[in-house]
Structures are given as structure tokens and as C-alpha cells.
Amino acid sequence: MSELLHRLRRDLNTLTDPVARAEIVARIAGVLARSGKFDDARHSINAIKEQFGRGESGRVTVWKMIAEGLVFHYENLSPAALERMSGALVLGRAMNYPAAVALASAWKAHIEFERSDFVKMAESLAASMKNVEAEDHDAQTRISMVLANAFMICGDRLQMQTWFLRGRNHAVKNGDRASVEALQYNKAAFATAWARVSSCTVPLEVDGLLHLRGEVNSARNLQELSGIAALNGHIQLIHARLLMLEQRYQLAVEALNVVRHTEPFAQHNFHQLYIDLEVQFCTVMLGGTDFSMALRYSDVLREFAGLDIDERIVASWMLARIAEAAELGEALAALEAELQRLLATHAANRGQLRASLASFVDDCTTIGP
After folding, report:
1. Among candidate residues 25, 100, 30, the one with its CA nearest the CA of residue 68
2. Domain that holds residue 322
3. Distance between CA 222 and CA 177 in Å, rounded?
4. If we measure between CA atoms, which residue out of 240, 334, 322 comes closest to residue 286?
5. Per residue in 145-171, pLDDT tens?
6. What is the DSSP letter of 205?
7. Is the domain of 243 the same as that of 320?
8. Which of 293, 312, 346, 369 is the most buried (most CB within 10 A)?
9. Is the pLDDT confidence value at 212 over 80?
């Protein structure tokens, strides 16, 4: 049991006021959701509904909505998560309840970042920072995590590391093991995503791959030690994709086939056909002669239209390499053109994200440790 969960349960045992107890139960449900214990989280939420199901307490309702949002987000990455966080934010503002506004806004920013809605993300972060207190470790950790991820996407490792360390500091102070693991996972995941896109234009340096392998292994080891289930599939996926970057193609095929049966993944960054493409790419790099994905590249890319742009960039590059191996000149020319188009869009998106982060570059030294 994490120190945070132990502390919340200890506090619950000392309380007699029904409202105060329900608030703690809701916070416990949120921690359980982030730890992948969804049935336990729903049980706690249902217990709150039985006693406060008619909105008898605004404070209880706002914490319950945040907990529900976390269940929706971590169990199946449902769009309902954003609706719950937005509702909690509206209620928190109506109640003039800064702690709820800070946390709901931080989680809203987290979801908006994952949707590449960078303008709204920046607005939500600003709202969270305006309301957060120095010792509000939950919100401070989430703010720092969103910004660390965003700066990593921009390739700004200095700011990424600053916010990563700040987030870990708050998570450790809070005894929040799930957030410590999530921070380590995010660092590895976004660094791997950056390397995958970069590898489509320039060869990766050996030292960089060794450093990245260390980060991915640290995330895997921490997950195994903590036993937190919420990120297990994602860690397996970035491990498999790093094996591809390391050109360890046979091991990558084995790892990818394990990932096939691992859930949940968001629709914007996972597709079973994508695993087929990655497996075929690895097989071709090993000397295989199945070029079927490149032969029907138009249909394949159409299937990937809903994926994040970095996934579509890597898909186009893999298809181009398969077409190259198959000596499919026309397909290769079309895929290289599509790759350049996507890279230009990706650069423009990064520019928009970088602009949205401009006001947060120095905030890590002005809003708390």
C-alpha cells in the first residue's frame, strides 16, 4: 500500500463527520483508480452515491466527480473523463473552492495535452496555478507532470527535467507511489516518442539509445516493484518500440505480439493494424519478403487517420522502408511525399505547443519547490 493511501485510510478512521469522511473516501477512490484498482475505486464511489447521491454536499460531489473522471481515464481512456473534470471545475469555481479548482484544472490540462489541444491545456494550467497552494501536492504533481511531458515533446530536455524533478519531489512528499511511477513512465514514453520521430529523418546516436534504454528499464523496474497495474501495457509497448530502434527486430516481434493482448490503450495512439505493420517492418528488416502492407499503403494509412501525428509519421516511414525493400518505386515516392507532409505538420504543431508553454518556462522557480 502506498504511503498516501495508508495516510488517507488512517485519516478516515479518525473522522466521524459524514461529509469529511465522504471527501476522504472520494480521494481514496482517485488513488485506487490511478493504481489500476478500478473495482475498488467504483465500490468507494458507489458508497458515496448511496449517502450523497442527491448532491447534499457540494464538496463531496466535486471530489466524487474527480474520482469518477480518474476511473474513466485510467480504465479505458474514455472521453467521459474530460466531462467529469470539467464538471468538477465548474462546481469548484461556483463554490469558491480553490483546492478543487486546482486539481480539476490540472487533470483537465492533462487530458487536453493528450488530445493535443494545447491552447486549452495552457488555459487549464494557468487556472490550476492560480489556485494551487504550495503544499497541495496532488495538484502540484499533476501540473509538473503535464509540463514535463509537454516540454519533452518540444525537445526541451532542460525544462523537462526541471519539471520532472519538481513533480517527483511533490509526489514523494505526498507518499504518492502511483505518481512517482507515472512520472518515470512518462519520461521514458515521451523520450521514446521523440526518438521514434527523430529516427525517421536522422540516424539515432548510440549514446542516446543507451540513455533511453536506461530510462525505459527504470520505468519497467519501478512498475514491477510497485505492482501498480494501470501502466503495465503502455510500458510493454514502449519497450517493444525501443527494441525496434535498437534494431533488435526478433525480440521486438516477440514483444509486440505480447502487447497485442494488453489493454487499455487510447484510440488516438493504438491500433491493432499498427502492430501488424510494426511486425511486418521488423520481419522485412530481418530479410523477410512479405511486402503486403506497402502494396496497399493507401488503405493502411487511411486506417491510421485517427492516430496521433507522431504515430502516422512513423507508420509512413516504416511503409516507405518496406516499399524500398520491395523496390516499389511508385509507392516509395508517394510514401516519402506523405512523410514530408506529416513532418511539416508535426513541426507546426510543436511550434504551437512551444508557444503555449512560453509563460511556464520560469514558473517552476516562482510557484513553489
Report:
1. 30
2. 269-362
3. 10
4. 322
5. 999 999 998 888 899 999 999 999 999
6. P
7. no
8. 293
9. yes
134: Cα separation from own chain's centroid: 24
In a domain, 369, yes or no: no
Angle between helices 177-198 and 157-174 (to 10 degrees): 160
C-alpha cell of 128?
Answer: 490550476
**Type of residue at 235:** I
Cis amide bond preceding 264, omega within 30:
yes
Phi and psi at residue 187, in whole multiples of 5°?
-60, -45
CB 338 within 8 A of CB 316: yes
Shortest CA distance to 330 belongs to which of 304, 305, 299, 298? Answer: 298
Q: Which residue has the cell 529523418?
A: 201
SS3 state of residue 310: helix
Count of structural domains within the chain: 2
Look up residue 344 and give its amino acid.
A
* Phi and psi angles of residue 238, each rounded to the nearest 5 degrees, phi first: -70, -30
Residue 255 has a CB neighbour count (10 Å cut-off) of 20
pLDDT digits (tens, 9 = 90+) for 44-100: 999 999 999 888 899 999 999 999 999 999 888 888 999 999 999 999 999 999 999
Q: Is the pLDDT confidence value at 368 over 50?
A: no
Query: What type of residue sits at position 60?
Result: V
Does residue 187 fall inside a structural domain? yes
Q: How far apart are CA 95 and CA 176, in angstroms?
A: 27
What residue has cell string 515516392?
A: 333
CB 342 within 8 A of CB 309: yes
Per the CB < 8 A criterion, the answer to whether 72 and 87 are in contact is no
